[in-house]
Design a protein that fits this description.
The protein has 7 helices and 2 strands. By secondary structure, the protein is mostly helical. It has a two-stranded antiparallel ribbon with strand order 1-2. Helix 3 runs parallel beside helix 7. The radius of gyration is 18 Å and the shape is globular. The model has no long low-confidence stretch (mean pLDDT about 85).
């Protein structure tokens, strides 16, 4: 099944239509890959991919988060790599580039994250951060729900 045209999409995060996105800076709506190209190496651009995931990193990613991508090792690492590398969602450039790619780093967060990163490999740091974001979002949702109940 073909992806819809970006002009027909809304941002998966904020819901802006392509028209709304064009009225802001940066304007473009884009398909954002869940695994950045610099890690997947799916698209050959910018004079080649630097620091692409190695097979061990892919294996770790698939073993730890494969269910999030509807993947496991049953069809082999190459099939999983290809499938995950293709996975993308429509996002406005504000959400993709300005917020997700360049988040606000709180000094207290970085201090608290430090002991969890020390001595870890790149893929382990990425998985730790994915867990922190998921746990934080779950807590955020729970707090919002409990605040609504007390009103």
């Amino acid at each position: 099944m073909a992806k819809p045209k970006l002009s027909e999409c809304s941002c998966v995060l904020c819901g802006w239509s392509n028209l709304q996105a064009k009225q802001n800076h940066p304007p473009q709506m884009q398909y954002a890959h869940v695994i950045a190209n610099r890690f997947s190496g799916r698209e050959k651009r910018y004079k080649g991919v630097r620091n692409a995931f190695g097979d061990a990193e892919w294996k770790t990613l698939i073993e730890k988060l494969g269910n999030e991508f509807n993947q496991d090792m049953s069809e082999g690492i190459e099939a999983s790599k290809k499938s995950i590398s293709k996975l993308s969602f429509p996002m406005c450039a504000e959400c993709h580039e300005e917020v997700l790619s360049e988040p606000l780093y709180l000094p207290s967060f970085l201090r608290d994250l430090y002991p969890h990163f020390v001595g870890k490999k790149r893929i382990e740091k990425m998985l730790i951060l994915a867990d922190v974001l998921k746990l934080g979002l779950d807590e955020f949702k729970n707090r919002k729900t409990s605040n609504r109940k007390h009103r």
